[in-house]
Every structure is written in structure tokens, then in C-alpha cells.
Design brief:
Structural class: alpha+beta
Number of domains: 1
Largest sheet: 7 strands, antiparallel
Shape: globular
CATH topology: Thiol Ester Dehydrase, Chain A
CATH superfamily: Hotdog Thioesterase
Order of helices and strands: EHEEHEEEE
CATH class: Alpha Beta
């Protein structure tokens, strides 16, 4: 398998090729930088039209922390799948763990969240990433996430 080593990016159409998620659960809009399987930066444009803002919270909308974590996991998953593409896409990617999660500042409509993902390790089909979400250069959340890629025939 040839490893991808050059910087790459993914527009929304490419993101949807890499991930099975769709509206309203696709939490990233593009990936502006992928460095092999080592790191990437995903982007989430937060809009008042997001369905979760109807209930979280109508008078003071805040993006739920769990969805920020999901955006981290999706960004990391897209990086894994992009890297493993030569051997065929995985049948399924399972989100395994969330560790060291911290939420430092609310994410609100109008924010552009940059999701920085860096590979901590990869052993076989298990991947672990350190993630950080920023808005205008200020850290709003961080976590470590891991996932398992299941390969095989359909």
C-alpha cells in the first residue's frame, strides 16, 4: 500500500465520499489540510439553521459539546479512510473512546470551528487521535478519540 505523504484537502463532496454521515448528522463541511495519516484540519461552519439550535437553547443558542466531539471524530474518521483508500473503504468505522474531553468556550451560530486532529498512534485497525477545536484561534474544546476500522468484503 502506498502511503499518502503530500498535503491534501477535501471539499464537501469528497467528505461525503469518505464518511457515511449525511444531513443533519454530517458535522464537518470540508477538510482544508490533510498530512498523510498524521494530521488534518476540518472545518464546521455553525449556522443558526442547525436543527439542534431549536432546543439547545432557543433563547441562547449553543452548539452541544457532544456534537463538537462528533465533529472531531468525523474529521479523524475522514483522515483514516482517506489514508486507507487504496485497500478499499472500510465496511464500518466504530467510534470507540472519548478521553480527556474539555469544553472551554461556547460555540454559537456564526462561528467557524477549525478541528485540528493529530494521530497519536495507529495499531492495525485501531486509531487514536488528539483533537482540538478552535474558533478564531481560541481553543473551545479538546479531546482524545479512538476508532476501529473494520475492513472486508460487503
Amino acid at each position: 500500500m502506498n502511503e499518502k505523504t503530500s498535503l491534501d484537502s477535501a471539499d464537501i463532496m469528497r467528505v461525503m465520499e469518505l464518511l457515511p454521515h449525511r444531513y443533519p448528522f454530517l458535522m464537518i463541511d470540508k477538510i482544508i489540510e490533510m498530512d498523510g495519516d498524521d494530521s488534518c484540519i476540518g472545518v464546521k461552519n455553525v449556522s443558526i439553521n442547525e436543527p439542534f439550535f431549536q432546543g439547545h437553547f432557543p433563547q441562547q443558542p449553543v452548539m452541544p459539546g457532544v456534537l463538537i466531539i462528533e465533529a472531531m471524530a468525523q474529521t479523524a474518521g475522514a483522515l483514516c479512510v482517506n489514508h486507507r483508500e487504496e485497500s478499499g473503504p472500510p465496511n464500518v468505522v466504530y467510534f470507540m473512546t472519548i478521553d480527556k474531553a474539555k469544553f472551554r468556550k461556547p460555540v454559537v451560530p456564526g462561528d467557524v470551528v477549525h478541528i485540528h486532529v493529530k494521530k497519536v498512534r495507529n495499531r492495525g485497525n485501531i486509531w487514536r487521535f488528539a483533537c482540538e477545536a478552535t474558533v478564531e484561534g481560541t481553543r473551545v474544546a479538546e479531546a482524545e478519540v479512538s476508532a476501529m476500522l473494520l475492513m472486508g468484503t460487503s
